[in-house]
Structure formats: C-alpha cells, structure tokens
Design goal:
Length: 1187
C-alpha cells in the first residue's frame, strides 16, 4: 500500500484505528449485519454487466471465506493478498503452505482471481552482501516455489511492494537498479516452472520524493527502464491513491493523485511498453488519521464512497490500458492506515455499501450462487472424488512443547506458545454436501486419547492413539466416517483440538498432548469390502499393556487400575490368595541381567495367574477414567467429560458439576472434592451434589491429597487438604475456607543446569502423605521430606531427578521409591538404599504408582500393572489387559514352540499357543527376526537382544554391546551372511553388526538422523534400500554412501518393504501400498487397498494340502502327486485389517480382521490349513480352504 503523503513517508506503525467516523454510516446506510460467510448471496436484480466492464477487486487481509464472500458481495472479481515470505519459509528450504493453500481454495470456490504479492523477507534471508537487503537467489528460489506450486491457479505474482520506499526496502535507501536485478533474477525463475503465469512489477508508492527515504515514483520507474527491467515483468502494477483530491484532479509530477496513472503510463509508452497491461492493486481515500501532517488528506466517509465510484467510472471511460482496478482494503483485523472500507460483516463503510448496491452493474458474480454450480475458474466439481482441506506437505503442530523430532515437520507453529487447536475451511456445492464422505488425515505422535475432531461444531470422535508405545516421528493415516446431514453447502469448518496428557505424566514443560497432523481430505465413504477369510477367531494370547492413569484403593482391599485409553477401568481381582503357599521366585530363578545370563536361569512363569483384572467400565466405554472414588453409596469418576457417578453398573453424569475435564476426586471433612482443568476446585456434600466452587482461585487442579490430624478441642479428626496445580500447591487446614500457598522445595535453575537437567522435562509436582501425617513432595523428579528443620531430599542420591513414586514412607526397611526406568529401591534399617527389583525388572518400565495391600506390593507405570508377593524382589504382570502382539514367530524346527513380542515383554508358548509364559522383563518389543542359522533377534526400546536357544526350557538372552539405549524398530539379518545384521533405529539411522549381534554400531554416512523402519537386501551385493520416516534411501556400496529416491514417497513414512522374485519392489507407506516395477524410479499406488498405513509386508508360503486318508489308511506311493509350491503376498495395515494377494500382487483382496492392526501372518505348520495373525488385540486364527 502507498503510504507517502506529499512530503512525508507514511509510517505504518504510527496509526491506530478511529472507529467513531463510522457512526454516520450506521445512521444512514443499509446494514449488512446479517451477512454470513457461508450464506448464498442475496438475490440481485437481473442486470446484465456491460461488455468490457473494468473488473474491480480488493486487497484483503486474510484469504478465508469471510473475506472472499465480502469481495464477491461488493462486486470484486479478484483479490490481492500477501504471500509472506517470512511466514511461508521461516527457515531455509522449509516451506509452510497452510495459509496460501487456504486462500486459493476459498478464492476458487467463490470464483475470485487471486493475485499474490510476494514480499516480507525472513530474517535468515537478510544479506548485506547482495544488491538487495535480502539474498536475491533465495528470493528467486522462493518465487519459483510459489509459481511451481500454484501456477495458473494464480492470476499473477507481484515481485515485492513499493520498492521506492525505504520502509519496504528494509529501512535502507531504495535502489531502483537493485530492484531491477531482483526482477531479472525472479522473472526467469518463475517462467521456468509456470511460463503462462503473469509476473507483476511491484507497485510503486505515489510520492514526490524525499531524499534517500522515498524516491519519486516517476523517476524510479524511468530508472528501472534504464536498467533494463522492462523485459522482466508482464504487468505494470500501480497504487492509485487520491490524496484527498477528486478522481478527475489533473495529474502533475509533484501532485500525487488518482490520475497519476497517466504519467506512469506515459513513461511506459516512452520506453516502448505502452501495450503492456496495467493493474491497480491498491486505491483509496483516507477517512481518518492520527498524524496531523496528513490531516489535509482526510475526506468524509460519504466523500470516500463518492470518489470511489467516480474513480471506477473515470477509469472505465478514460483508461483502455487499465485491466484491473483494486481497492484497499477488506480486513477483519482492522485498518491501521485509515483507508479500509470493511472490517467484517458487522463493520462496513459507506463505500463498501455503495459498491454492494452497484455490484450488479460491474460484476457477473453477483448473480451466481457458488454452492449451486462450480465456477468456471474453480477446480471444485461435483464429480471430484477427493476434497482437499490441508495439503500432504503442510503439517500443523499443536501442543505446548518447544520442538519435536524430526525438524522438518514442525515450523513456526512451534516454540513455547501454546497452540491448543486449529481450524480449517473446506467448501462444498449443494450436490456435494448430500454425498457420503469419510474424512482422512495423517497424524504423528498421538499417544493421548484426548485430541478431538469436530466438523461444523459436531464432535466426530477422538484421534486414534497408536496401538503400541510409539515415540517415533512416523505418520499414519486415520479415517473417520461422517454422519448424515453433517455437511452443508458452502463453508464447512473442521477443528482439531489437543487435550491434556495423562494426569500421571504431565510435565512442567508439557501438560498437553504434543502432536502433528497433515493431509486432511474428504473421500467418498468407504464401503467395507467382503472378506475372503471372514471367520477369524481369537486365540489364547499373552498379557497386554496399558499406560496407567492412577492406581486407586477403595474400601477394604479393593484396588482399581485406571488406564490411559477409553473404557479402561479395571478392578484388581485375586484368584489365588497369598496364603496358599505360593513360593516366591528364588533369586536364582529370576530374570537375570543379560550381561550375567546363564543357560540354567529358569524362566517358566506359565502357572495360573494369581491376580487378574476385570473391566468395570460398564456402559461407558467412551470415558477416560482419570480417577475413581469408591464409597459405600456408590462410585464417583473423574473423566475427560466431567464427573460421573453410579450406584450400579450404569454411569450418570453429575448434575451441577462443571462440564470440564476432571482430573481427581477425593473425600475430606465429610465433603467430596473434584479438581478440573479450567474450572479449578469444586466440592459437594455427596456424590450427586449440590456442587459449588471451593473458593480456591487456581486452575488446573490436577491432584488432591489429605493429611489427617487431631486437635485437643475437637472430638473428630480434621483433614488438611492439599491441592496441586500445574506448578504450585495450596493447602487448606480443614477448619475454614482459607487456602494458602504451600511452598515447594526445589533446586535453583543454576543447580539444575549443573546437574544437566531441565525443569521442562520433569513431571509436575505431586504430594505424598506419610503414616504420621507428614508430607513428602515430588518436585523436579526428586522426593523431598518435610521435617522440623525444613525440607530434605529423600531417596537414593543416584536417583535424583528420576524419582516418581513412594510407598510405606518413611520407615527403615519398609519405605520404597519408584523411579523412571531405574528400578525400585528400599530404605534399609541402616539408612542406606538398596535396589529391590530382581533382574533390574523396572529398568525398561517406570513406576508412577506404588500401593501395598497386606503382603502384596503393586507397581503401575507406562506398561501396566505388576505385583510382587516376596517383598518386591520378583515381579509378575497382572493379567487381563488387552493384548497387543507386535510380532510372532513359530519355531521352524519345533513348531509347538512360539514366541510373541509385546509392548511389555517377550512371551513363549511350548504347547502350540495354548498357554504363554513371560521369558523376559517388560521390554517393549517392536520386531523379531530369525537369522539364516536360526538365531532369534529382538528389537527393543533399549537395544538389540538375541538368543540361540529361545525354545528351550532354560533359554538365555544376550544383549548387543553399544546402542543399548537406542530404540530398535526393525531387525534385518542378512539372508546369507549369518554374522551380518542391520537394524533400523529411532533417530539413529542404522545399527550394524558384523558378528551376529554381539556388537552394534551406528551407520550414518549421509543419512543425518533418520529413523529406519525396514530395508531390503537386494540381490546385487552391497545394494540396500532403506525405508525411513521420510521416504526411501538407497546405497550401492554397502552403506558407505546413500541417496534419496525421488517420487511420491519422498516425504511419506515408509514402514515396510518387499522385493518379489520378478524384481518388483513393494512399499507400505502412510497412505497405502505402492509398487515400483523399475527399481524405485517410479511408483504406483495399489487402488484396491484403502488409504491407510501399511505397516508390514511379506511373502506367505502356502503349505501343500494334506493328503486325504481313507480306510485302510495306508499311503500308497502311487498316490503321490507333484505339488507346485505357492506363495501369497500379504499386507498388514494399521486399523484396516489384512490384505492378501494370491497372484504375486496383480490383485489384492481383503482377508478380514477389520479395524485391527496386523503385525504378522503365518501358516501354522502343525495345522497347515490355519492362518495365524498377530494383531493389536491379540492372536487370531482362521481356517483356509484348500481352494
């Protein structure tokens, strides 16, 4: 926009809006307050627009439906919008297209041509060593990317804005010769990728000139031509402001006004450019200013409206070379300059109203309803199979963490600013709105069931949590079926909002889910295909896992486990009493540390379960149970949807309590207290109310504890109540309504830095109350005990910064602390601390909750619930949680032996899968693989392990040296060389072993910090293709160098790879199954499969049919038949079941297990006609007919 007013450069930042000037309008003009962006335009008179009518348009503040509808309503046929270089490319080569993509979609739906103004450099591009204040090559590359992405969808791209003003030239003296170089660099870059896209000269500010700070636009233009710039723009762009003068005021060099256009065009003609089109992208008259120097330019709102219409008529009559006339400005954010004519549907000017009233005479769009038929300019079509909402290369970052790995997926939406939600617009015609659609999107790092998806204010559901513990930065496709009558013609709004993390795992620097999503689109509703194997049956499976919210005691010995996922309310049930002479596991029989493992370390735990879990969620499987209060009269639950109570199996919402995320419920002083996210602390005399605010002005309230004490003058004890927020603790003495801050002990920032720790990575504070009523505080993942002399650290010194939980405090020989993957420790009678858990059992799982009931000790954490009946030395997992089998292997030599990988350990069966025993501590296992000589490898969250005797009664596991803290995502033994094993890792590229897994070393060589998910050993020696979270990489020299394969998989997560005998390469990726028949040069999607993450691929050898036996059951050699070995291909998806190909990939069929995630599929050698599948809900089997 032109800001120079006669002798002074207009300062953008010096003005503030004055709203009183619009009072006259509201008294005289017809109101447009009822206007809504998604409503069809009001019926207009049937006035025919005259031929060759000058198109008018508007400069707009945002590219959304509200602004595009405002453009259309006032007769605009085009809009000018800024494509901010700083916003789109905040870091070099990281492009963020959300806003420009949305602007194009809105403009196309409303039939509006969009002109992009490319300016506003990012800090990283500033370069004092180039002619312009920013790097010319970087700007040209950015302009090329804009043109490459949008091409002719744009009406034009303007190269910068008002380059003759210093304030647009990074506060340096403007330089016409330097701007000419800018044009010379940008023009060929744009034309190389979009030869028909018009390139616009950056419009010059009308100014008489003021030294080095504002160069006269006429002089500046002539200098551009002298510098040879004329050949490097297609459209001359101008800003035609009135400067308080009527539109027909005669032009003079030192008298800026509307007709200055004529002087500019004269210069064009004098330089042989007179036939080049001219577009005005900004025009207007000032109606207010807070700068006295510019007061002479101010006109009344009535005069602004009059001059605007007169200017349109004058240009139509006198300027045949003027092809577009744009007006400043439509912007719901307000106007800092004094020219704006529209600030939202409820805040419009006389000028805007006048344009609306005359719209039928100058715009054909006034007569059209965009919801009834597609615009000629728009790609929107009733026949379109997919409707884009957010592009595949445009991730959105939500949450409260500063950064996430990997770097490329989070841009300027990161930082410490809390981004709780996102809204996106999409547009439908009337016909499209009646069709059935599914919504698809790709998500990353969702591990909390608290992230909601809403369309048009209706909650569609919660974003799906990954079925196994997943720290990786991998993309997965999620699908949601949309209910009938949800979508509407015109504008539709999709909203994604993150919720709080598990209350047990909220950090000082991250209380909320931190996740990303991209590639949102509508697709025709999925019709579930018929399964060729419909009769899958669940089989006995190892125990499952669940991250723990809380472990709550009820009356007597009642104990409840509250899991992370919806519907996970489990009651702990004892099936074998402790007094039934269950012998504790001897230390010699416990899981031995891997470094000291020996062949005689017995590990059979196949005895019947002593303790199990019974799900008691009842009729509300949709609730996430954060806390539970069990009383004789019923139960009260704190959930993500507020408070619920029950006296039988039916849950009822609590009337009068806040409809807010509830964290905690507790009883104190004959009242019930509940803590909420936004509403703080509430209380009630009973389960059902009435509820009232407690008076504590603090939120959120994430934890409550009581400490009972007595007073000499009271017959009954009093409960002191402590309430914990995200960072503070408050205390109430139970005698009045006063709440006081409770100062927490803490190390200083300097001490934390010295310890190499960060407060942001520590769990939020929590209080524990000792048997004597004293308080122990967990803060900075340290335990502090309150004594007569103040606070003192409590717990092993070596565990400072790793302590999570506490029980039996604080008696010697009984106090036990739980840690973050560093074991359980007990305070001895001598005052020392000793590790309690045998085999370092809690080295791969943490303990956020500890409870002791009689002789049984319970520990719960990120992998489930465990118990010990020998004082905490030997531990077993409590059975009953839903099984997740991340891999399954059947021993080829002894098929009765099977081993199953789970997120909480390895389990073995020696009776064809009828019973399972744990054969490891609770390792999180992602992958199993057999080497060519039968060695079994397991990829864990803490390195690689292997065993040569895993099927034996006394098996031994060995851990690979080095990379012991690295997450191993895939294990890939070389098919021939038994000593060669490559592993895919999270963020550490490839782990390589050349000695059969004894040692493991990282292989980088150009892979940066990728996560390897699978690989192919190609027949050509030294050639390997690697699947990563960001595309495919290949080496031809055994890993010494790598190059990335181009194509549609370049920014997808590729989970799985397979090469068949004909050379075809198959890739399972975020959005489906792909095939390459030219060794990865080009890729074709397999349309038979749905758009879903394909996480596993493999061959499936089909066993020969069993010979039929007829009396006398004697096999005759003459009956022998030659059987041609067959092989199927299978694809395991995340959440979309199993897919099979019986013809080497030519066709694919759905093989059942809908909504399940498939990790492995095997024919059972002992039942050759039975197929066995490892899934996210346990093991399944199905009989396969011989045909």
């Amino acid at each position: 926009m032109m800001k120079q007013r006669l002798y002074t450069v207009y300062n953008k930042k010096s003005l503030s809006k004055i709203g009183a000037i619009l009072v006259l309008f509201f008294l005289t003009a017809r109101s447009l307050a009822a206007q809504t962006p998604d409503a069809a335009p009001s019926p207009q008179p049937d006035t025919t627009v005259a031929p060759n009518t000058l198109p008018i348009g508007f400069h707009i503040g945002q590219g959304d439906s509200t602004h595009m509808e405002a453009v259309r309503r006032a007769g605009g046929t085009f809009a000018v919008i800024v494509f901010s270089w700083a916003d789109i490319e905040p870091e070099p080569n990281y492009l963020y297209w959300e806003k420009p993509d949305a602007a194009l979609r809105a403009a196309e739906f409303y039939g509006i041509d969009l002109i992009a103004r490319i300016d506003q450099p990012p800090d990283w591009a500033l370069d004092a060593g180039t002619p312009t204040p920013w790097n010319l090559d970087a700007y040209a590359a950015f302009a090329r990317r804009v043109a490459e992405r949008y091409g002719n969808r744009l009406a034009g791209v303007a190269i910068w804005n008002e380059p003759n003003l210093s304030q647009e030239w990074h506060d340096q003296p403007p330089d016409a010769a330097a701007y000419a170089e800018m044009l010379k660099a940008s023009y060929p870059a744009i034309k190389a990728v979009a030869p028909d896209l018009p390139v616009l000269l950056g419009a010059l500010a009308s100014t008489e000139g003021e030294g080095d700070w504002a160069i006269n636009d006429l002089d500046y233009l002539q200098t551009l031509y002298t510098a040879g710039a004329g050949a490097y723009f297609d459209i001359f762009t101008a800003h035609a402001y009135g400067f308080g003068r009527p539109p027909d005021d005669a032009p003079e060099k030192f008298r800026p006004n509307f007709r200055r256009l004529e002087l500019l065009h004269d210069i064009m003609s004098a330089n042989g450019d007179g036939d080049k089109p001219v577009w005005v992208t900004e025009m207007g008259w000032l109606t207010w200013t807070d700068n006295p120097k510019h007061a002479w330019q101010v006109v009344t709102p009535e005069l602004q409206a009059q001059y605007t219409l007169q200017a349109i008529d004058y240009a139509q009559t006198h300027y045949p070379w003027l092809h577009r006339l744009g007006i400043w400005q439509l912007n719901t954010q307000g106007d800092t300059y004094g020219y704006g004519i529209w600030h939202g549907p409820d805040d419009i000017s006389l000028t805007y109203q006048a344009l609306v009233d005359t719209c039928p005479t100058h715009s054909p769009l006034c007569h059209l309803d965009p919801t009834q038929s597609p615009n000629l300019q728009s790609p929107v079509s009733n026949l379109q199979s997919s409707i884009p909402i957010l592009a595949a290369d445009t991730p959105i970052r939500l949450g409260d963490r500063g950064t996430l790995y990997p770097h490329w997926v989070h841009l300027y939406r990161g930082g410490r600013n809390f981004s709780p939600d996102w809204q996106g617009e999409f547009f439908l015609t009337a016909d499209q709105s009646t069709q059935s659609y599914d919504l698809l999107l790709e998500t990353m790092q969702i591990d909390q069931p608290a992230d909601s998806l809403t369309i048009n204010d209706m909650e569609i559901g919660m974003l799906h949590v990954r079925p196994r513990p997943d720290p990786t930065s991998t993309w997965v496709t999620q699908r949601f079926s949309l209910p009938p009558n949800l979508l509407k013609p015109g504008v539709n709004i999709v909203t994604i909002a993150v919720g709080p993390r598990n209350p047990a795992r909220q950090y000082l620097g991250a209380r909320w889910e931190n996740m990303e999503f991209r590639h949102i689109r509508l697709v025709p509703a999925n019709t579930n295909p018929l399964s060729i194997l419909p009769e899958w049956q669940p089989q006995p499976s190892p125990s499952g896992w669940s991250e723990t919210n809380r472990l709550r005691r009820g009356p007597g010995d009642e104990l409840w486990l509250l899991g992370l996922h919806p519907g996970q309310l489990w009651q702990v049930t004892t099936t074998v009493a402790p007094d039934q002479n269950i012998e504790p596991t001897p230390e010699s029989q416990a899981f031995k540390p891997l470094e000291d493992a020996s062949p005689d370390s017995g590990r059979s735990l196949a005895s019947p379960p002593e303790i199990t879990l019974e799900n008691r969620a009842g009729d509300r499987a949709d609730l996430v149970f954060n806390d539970l209060l069990s009383l004789p009269q019923g139960q009260l639950a704190a959930t993500q949807r507020g408070l619920f109570w029950r006296s039988d199996d039916t849950w009822q919402p609590v009337d009068g309590a806040p409809d807010d995320y509830a964290y905690v419920v507790i009883e104190a002083n004959q009242r019930i207290y509940a803590g909420f996210e936004r509403e703080g602390l509430w209380s009630s005399p009973g389960l059902t109310g009435p509820w009232q605010h407690s008076g504590l002005d603090a939120a959120p309230i994430t934890d409550l504890v009581t400490a009972r004490y007595t007073l000499p003058n009271r017959a009954t004890p009093v409960d002191r109540l402590y309430a914990t927020t995200a960072t503070e603790v408050f205390v109430n003495n139970g005698l009045d309504a006063t709440w006081l801050p409770f100062p927490l002990p803490a190390l200083s920032d300097e001490a934390m830095d010295e310890a190499g720790e960060s407060n942001s990575d520590k769990l939020k504070p929590r209080l524990f109350v000792t048997e004597s009523g004293d308080v122990v505080a967990r803060n900075q993942d340290r335990l502090w005990r309150q004594g007569n002399l103040g606070w003192g650290l409590f717990g092993p010194d070596k565990l400072a910064g790793k302590l999570f939980s506490l029980v039996n405090c604080c008696r010697s020989g009984q106090a036990i602390v739980g840690s973050n993957d560093a074991g359980l420790w007990q305070l001895t009678s001598s005052g020392d601390w000793t590790r309690l858990d045998g085999d370092d059992f809690f080295s791969t799982t943490d303990a956020t909750e500890l409870v002791q009931i009689d002789a049984t000790l319970y520990a719960a954490g990120d992998l489930g619930l465990f118990y010990s009946r020998d004082g905490g030395h030997a531990w077993r997992k409590v059975d009953g949680l839903p099984a997740t089998i991340t891999d399954l292997i059947i021993d080829p030599d002894t098929p009765a032996n099977r081993i199953a990988a789970t997120p909480a350990g390895l389990y073995r069966s020696r009776d064809t899968g009828h019973t399972w025993e744990a054969v490891s501590p609770p390792w999180t296992i992602w992958n199993l693989a057999l080497g060519p000589q039968g060695r079994l490898f397991a990829g864990r969250s803490n390195g690689l392990v292997w065993s040569d005797d895993w099927g034996e009664a006394n098996s031994e596991w060995h851990a690979a040296e080095d990379m012991k803290k690295v997450y191993i995502l895939s294990v890939n033994p070389h098919p021939v060389e038994a000593d060669t094993v490559w592993t895919g890792t999270w963020g550490n590229n490839i782990g390589v072993s050349s000695d059969g897994g004894r040692h493991l070393a990282p292989l980088h060589n150009g892979l940066e910090t990728l996560s390897g998910l699978d690989l192919i050993w190609h027949p050509t020696p030294g050639q390997v293709t690697l699947a990563t979270f960001e595309g495919l990489y290949r080496t031809d020299d055994g890993g010494q160098s790598w190059f990335k394969l181009p194509g549609p998989l370049a920014q997808q997560t590729v989970y799985s790879l397979l090469q068949t005998d004909d050379g075809t390469i198959w890739a399972g990726a975020t959005d489906g199954l792909w095939r390459s028949q030219d060794y990865g040069v080009t890729w074709t999607p397999i349309e038979a499969l749905p758009q879903t993450a394909v996480i596993r691929l493999d061959r499936l050898p089909v066993p020969p049919p069993s010979p039929s036996l007829n009396p006398p059951f004697v096999f005759q050699p003459t009956e022998a038949q030659l059987y041609r070995l067959r092989e199927w291909l299978w694809a395991g998806t995340e959440g979309a079941g199993l897919w099979l190909s019986q013809d080497n990939g030519d066709t694919w069929q759905f093989a059942g297990l809908p909504e399940r995630t498939i990790y492995n599929v095997i024919f059972d050698p002992l039942l050759p006609d039975h197929l066995v599948a490892a899934t996210d809900r346990g093991i399944f089997a199905v009989a396969v007919k011989q045909d």
